[in-house]
Amino acid sequence: MSSNLAALSQAGVSIWLDDLSRDRIDSGNLAELIRDKHVVGVTTNPTIFANALGDGEAYDEQVRELADRGADVDAVVRELTTTDVRNAADLFRDVFTATGGVDGRVSIEVDPGLARDTDKTVAEAADLWKTVDRPNLLVKIPATEEGLPAITRTLAEGISVNVTLIFSVERYKAVIDAYIAGLEQAKANGHDLSSIHSVASFFVSRVDSEIDKRLETIGTAEALALRGRAAIANAQLAYAAYEERFSSPRWEALQADGANVQRPLWASTGVKNPDYSDTRYVDGLVVANTVNTMPESTLDASADHANVTGDTVSGTAEQAQEVFDSLAGVGIDVADVFTTLETEGVDKFDTSWSELLETVSRQLAKAKADPGMGADQIGVELDPALADAAAPLIDALVSDGVAGRLAAQDATLWGPDAEAEASIRLAWTTLHRTSRPLIGEIEALRTDLRSEGIDRVVLAGMGGSSLAPEVITASAGVPLTVLDTTDPAQVADALTGDLDRTVLVVSSKSGTTVETDSHRRVFAAAFEAEGIDPARRIVVVTDPGSPLAELEQCRKVFLPIRTWAGATRP
Predict the structure, then answer these.
(1) pLDDT tens per residue, range 499-554
(2) How far is residue 235's CA from residue 241's CA, in Å, rounded to a whole number?
(3) Cα distance between residue 537 and residue 550, in whole Å
C-alpha cells in the first residue's frame, strides 16, 4: 500500500475515486483499489457514465437483454447506471460497515436536465434511492437555487445526499443551511438521523482555470502573480464556513439526536494546468473529516509523490480572504466567476447526459438489429405429444409476457398471496451480472492462498451449499473435496489430505447447520494439532446476521447478494 495515501487517510481525508465503469467492477480493479490504495468511496456523474458506456463492449449483454424486453432508451440508461452503482455499493459493503456508514459510499446523479426543477429533482432522487436499494448510496443533487429546496426535501425523506456543483462559499453556506433544515424535517417525519449522511462537493480546479484565464486577460504583473491561488483559498474559506456552521446551537441540537455532520468533499481535484503539480489539490487540502474525490491519474500521482505534511487548511481563512481581496483589487468579478462556473457545470453535465442517451440509443438499435444469442434463438425440442399439450400454455405465456416479466423481476406473476415473498426471491435472474463484483475478491483470496502454498480446497456444506459447487468443479475439471456428510470414514478421508496445503470453505446459509459446524470444529482442531492457525485456513460463505458471519476464527467471510432491507436474495 502507498505510504502517501496511508498518510492522507490518517490525516482524516477519505479517498474516493472519481470514476466508475462496468469494466472497473468486473475486472476486479475497483476491489484492488479498495484493498491497495485506501479508496473508500466512488463518485459518478453523467460525463463518467457517458465515457464508460461509449468505451468497449462491457454493457452489450445487458443492453441486448433490455432490448429483448422492449425497454426504451431512458429505461436502459437507468438500468445500466443503477446496476453499476448497486454493484459498486456491494463492493464497498465492508468499508461501509467498518466506518459506521461514514465511508463506503457510492454516488449517482439525478438527471442534470432537472437541475432547475425542484419538484422533478425530488421525485428523481426518491426513484434512484428506491431503485438502487442500498443504504450506502448518495444521491447527487446540484447546488443550484432550485436544487437547495430539493436537497432539504430529499433529506427530509431519510435519503442521503451528495450536494454537487458548489463553487462559491456563499452558496456553500446555503447548502449547509439546506442540510440542517432537511435533518430537522427528517426528525419531524420520524426518521433516524444517524442513518442520514451527506457530503458537500466543493469544486476546486475549475476555480483556478476560470480565474487564471481572466487574470491572463488582464495581464498585469500584479494580476499574473495571483494565478493558481484562488482555488485552494476558496476551499480554505469554505472549510472555515463549515467549522462555523457546524458549531452553532442549532446544529448541536441535531447532533444530540444522532445527526451526522455534512463533510466537505473536494471535487474536481485533477489538475487542469500542466504547469502546476499534479497533486496540488491533494497536498493543499489536507484536513480532518473531509473527502477528496480523485480521478485515477491523481490517485496514482498521489500514491507516488504526494507531499502530505499535515493539516494545510485549518486556521488559513484570513490569508485566504486576502487572496480574494487581491483578486477583486486587480479587477476580477468573483461573483461572475462563480455564476459562470455553475452555469457551465450544469450545461456540461447536461451535454454529457445527452451524449449518454445517444450512445445508448445506438447500442439499443444495434442490439435489436443483431440480437446475437438472445432468448428468441434458444429453443428445445419436445416430444410431439408434449408439444401439443404445451402449445396453448406457451401461447398464454407469450401473450402475458411472462418471460420478460420474469426477467424484470415482476413479483406479481405469483399472485397477491406470494408477491411479498417473490419480491425477494427473484434476484437470481440477474446474478450473472450482480455477482461479478465478487470475482475480484475471490481472485485476490486465491492469489494470496497460492502464494502461501495453499491449493487444496475442502468444502463443508449440506444440500445446495455443496451440490452446485460439486457439479461446477466437476464440469470444469477442478479438484474439490466435498464434505456433505458426517460419515466418519468420509470425514477421516478429508482430514488425511495434506493440511499444510488445505483451506476449508464452510458454506451454510443459516450458519447453524449442525453437520457443517461439526466439520468446521473438526478441521479447526486438526489445523491446531498441526501447528496451523485455523483463522488463516477457514473461509466462510453465509448469510448476513448468521452466527458464521460473526466468526472470528476465519480468514474471509463472503456474503450473498442481498437486499439491504434485510431479506437475502438467493
Answers:
(1) 999 999 999 988 888 999 899 999 999 999 999 999 999 999 988 888 888 888 89
(2) 10
(3) 16
299 grid coordinates: 490517485
Q: Identify any residues that bridge with 141 across adjacent strands, giving them in sequence order.
A: 163
Non-local CB neighbours of 445 within 8 Å, separated by 6+ positions: 539, 555, 556
Helix (H), strand (E) at residue 397: helix 384-399
Q: Are 502 and 537 in contact (CB under 8 A)?
A: yes
Q: Three-state DSSP class for 361?
A: helix
Whole-Å CA distances, 338 to 25, 239, 316, 351: 35, 17, 21, 20
* DSSP designation for 568: B
All 3 cell numbers of residue 474?
466437476
CB 153 within 8 A of CB 182: yes
Within 10 angstroms of residue 546's Cβ, the number of other Cβ atoms is 19
359's enclosing H/E stretch is helix 334-369
CA–CA gap between residue 191 and residue 135 (Å, rounded): 14
Which contacts (CB < 8 Å, 24+ apart) does range 132-135 have?
132/82, 132/85, 132/86, 132/89, 132/108, 133/86, 133/563, 133/564, 133/565, 134/85, 134/86, 134/89, 134/90, 134/106, 134/564, 135/96, 135/101, 135/160, 135/195, 135/564
The Cα–Cα gap between 394 and 384 comes to 14
* Contact criterion met (CB below 8 Å) for 77 and 360: yes
> Which residues are catalytically annotated?
140
Helix (H/G/I), strand (E/B), else coil: 190: coil
Question: Among all chains, which residue has been given the C-alpha cell 406470494?
Answer: 418
β-strand pairing of 456-460 with 263-267: unpaired
How far is 377 from 20, CA to CA, in rounded Å? 33
Cβ within 8 Å of residue 474, ≥6 positions away: 480
Classify the C-alpha dihedral 491-494-497-503 as positive or negative: negative
In the chain, the amino acid numbered 460 is: A
pLDDT, tens digit (0-9, with 9 covering 90-100), for 45-69: 888 888 888 776 888 888 888 888 8
The CA-atom distances, in angstroms, between 102 and each of 105, 199, 532 are 8, 10, 37
For 112-141, what is the HEC assignment?
A: HHHCCCHHHHHHHHHHHHHHHCCCCEEEEE
First-residue to last-residue Cα distance in the chain: 35
Angle (CA) 329 331 332, round 5°: 100
Q: What is the pLDDT of residues 331-367, one digit of tens each?
A: 999 999 999 999 999 999 888 888 888 888 888 888 8
- Candidates 203, 214, 541; CA nearest to 349 is 203
Residue among 410, 397, 403 at smallest CA distance from 376: 403
pLDDT, one tens digit per residue, over 64-86 is: 888 888 888 999 999 999 999 99
Longest CA–CA separation in the chain, Å: 93
Judged on CB neighbours under 10 Å (0-12, 13-18, 19+), 139 is: buried
